[in-house]
Amino acid sequence: MARRRAYRFVLKTLFWAIAISILLVTALKWVPVRYTPLMLKRTIQNKEVRTQQRWVPIEKVSPALIQAVIASEDNRFADHKGFDRKELEKMWADHKEKGKKIRGCSTISQQVAKNVFTFGSQTWARKAVEAYWTVLIEKIWGKRRIMEVYMNVAETGPGLYGMEAAAMHYFGKSAGDIDRKQACALAACLPAPLDRSPDRPTGYTRKRQQQIYALIPKLRYPDWAQ
Predict the structure, then answer these.
(1) CATH 1.10.3810.10 corresponds to the domain 32-225
(2) Which of 56, 73, 78, 108 is nearest to 223 (CA)?
(3) Cα dihedral sign for 55, 79, 70, 102?
(4) Inter-residue contact 149 to 34 (CB < 8 Å)
C-alpha cells in the first residue's frame, strides 16, 4: 500500500512538473524574458556590478548581428532540432580516436534553455534538465523566438545581457545599427564575455572576429535572418 502511494505521488509530481513547464514555456513565447537565473547568479557573485538589459524585438536587431552569432555559436542553427548531431558525433570521434577532451557542443537552443531555465551548474543532471527544456522551446517557440530570446538574455559582458545592452555599451548604438564588422567583434566575445571585450580585443579575439566574418557568407540562415 505504501509503495502504491509513493508511486502515485511520483506520477502526480511528474505530471504537474511537465504541465507547469509547458505552461511556462508557452507563456514565454510571448512575454519578454527580462531576468534569468544566470543574472541572479552573477548578482550574488558580484553585487557591485549592475545588471543591464534592454529587450528589443528580433526585427530591431541587425541581420548582420544574427548571422554573426550563428556563425560564431551554432553553424547549423537553421537545420537542427535543438541538438547538433553532427557536431556531437565529431566530438565523440575526436575523443575516442585522438584522446581529445570531451567539449561542449551546445547549440543556441541549448544555451537559451540553460540560461533561462537553469542555474548553469556543471553536472550531468543539469544537462538532462537542459535537454528537456531544449525540446520544449524548439517545439513551442520555434527558431525565431529562440533567437529573439538569445539576443536579449545572452551574457555579453560584466553585468551586460543581450545585444542591445552590449551594442550601446561598446559602440554607443542600437543593435539594429550594428554593421558586420562590429557584429563579428561582439560574436567573437560570446564564448567568454567576462574575459573578452570587443573594444579591447586581444590578438585571439581579432583572429576569431576575422574567422567569423569570413564564415558568414558560407552558411545558411532562416528567412527572417536575411
Answers:
(1) yes
(2) 78
(3) positive
(4) no
pTM: 0.91
Q: Which residue type sits at 95?
A: H
d(CA 215, CA 226): 15
Cα 213 to Cα 78: distance, rounded to the nearest angstrom: 18
**All residues at 6 or more sequence positions from 36 whose CB lies less than 8 Å from its CB, including other chains:** 115, 116, 153, 161
Identity of residue 7: Y
226 vs 221: CA distance, rounded Å: 7
- What are the boundaries of each domain within the chain? 1-31, 32-225
Question: Please, what is the angle between helix 108-117 and helix 124-140, to 10°?
Answer: 110
25-64 confidence digits (pLDDT tens) = 999 999 999 999 999 999 999 888 899 999 999 999 999 9
pLDDT digits (tens, 9 = 90+) for 65-100: 999 999 999 999 999 999 888 776 666 665 456 655
Strand blocks (E) in the chain:
52-53, 155-157, 160-161
- Give Cα separations from 88 to 14, 65, 85, 103, 107 (angstroms): 29, 26, 5, 9, 10
| Cβ contact 156:54 at 8 Å | no
